[in-house]
User: What shape does this take?
Amino acid sequence: MAKDKTMYVCSNCGQESAKWIGKCPACGQWNTFKEFRVASDTGSMAARSAAQSVRSAKSADRNKPLRLNEISAKDEPRISMNDTELNRVLGGGLVPGSIVLLGGEPGIGKSTLTLQTILNMPERRVLYVSGEESAHQLKMRAERIQNALPTNASSENILILTETSLEAIFEHIRDINPQLVVIDSIQTIATEEVESSPGSVSQVRECAAALLRFAKSSGVPVILIGHINKEGTLAGPKNLEHIVDTVIQFEGDQHYMYRILRSTKNRFGSTSELGIYEMQQNGLRQVSNPSELLLTQDHEGLSGVAISSAIEGVRPFLVETQALVSSAAYGTPQRSATGFDQRRLNMLLAVLEKRVGFKLMQKDVFLNIAGGLRVTDMAMDLSIIAAVLSSNVDTPIESGWCMAGEVGLSGEVRPVSRIEQRIAEAEKLGFSNIIIPKYNMQGLDRKRFNITIHPVRKVEEALRVLFG
Assistant: This one.
């Protein structure tokens, strides 16, 4: 038998070393290397025995070298999750044999989303492994969720297992032969081959590697639920995100009703897709048209409010930008942004002061994206400048106006992508006027839209159109 070896692993980033080091060369943290004893075969026997029972007869040919022109380029079949938002973020559904990591803040709704999804898949046999909650707790949550699900939702094919031992989990997988495995969460699972507590760097790495071998060799997809550390990143070693095929972040403020599902890594689809949910008492509700929910109807006559036509992924929606400008109470003015990049706000304020001539040096500026969303679309620039100026002069923007445009350092309004989708979304929601970059007018047919389009080249022109 091969002897066990001792290695030192950084508890912050997972960097390995043959000897103890004071400062980690990867992340720069001090005194983070811990000693671990690693066995020669960490969990591979359990993973191999579980995979062999569900492996097809053709699996022996998968490891043979193939010429590039012999490999089929057809899309792999997808497993529908019966959830439009989740399917969009995954790239069209769950790929067989893939491993998906779902992360989020505590209490954000990761387990609720996963349990709600598998309850809506009555045709598949699912093994739900819980290392944090008891079977009774999961039953109470399932009963609460089932009240809002369609009548065809069933829990007959859902098997609940409360276990933290990786070897025991693979034994149950071999006996049950599931079509989908859910691990809640990967930080609670431990293998006997590694002498460390669950959630440590070595345990998370080895358990994830064993589950990856099982998923790839058997074709059974695996969904891992992960924790978030105090820095806001996924807990465990960094190579956990490299091991899995898809990394999904479940974001949002617990005090807001909206939840954002976005992909940060996806080997089978785009990472620019976005899913929006609304947290309710009986589970998460899909938001198919977020524009109607993100726009309040009582802001008429209020200054500092501007509507922007933004795009996240491939879906357009209108979002409300709120700004408040007041005299600085202290020597240094405050700059605060919620849901928007703080550095970009400072840049836009500098453009507004240098190019337009409005002095904001001695004033506090507070910016908020309504609804608790975090928007990264550059087309938000024009609405942010309009909202800041509206609050500064205490003059409201007339109702029925929205805008989309990126602002450059010289004060020009730069073109944005998918302008026709932005205009169509504004027209659908009843807006009568929209401000767009003049460059986007090339090839645009105005006759297709029943909304008045105002093309502008500079920020001064846009402000002149809004405020006269």
Notes: The radius of gyration is 26 Å.
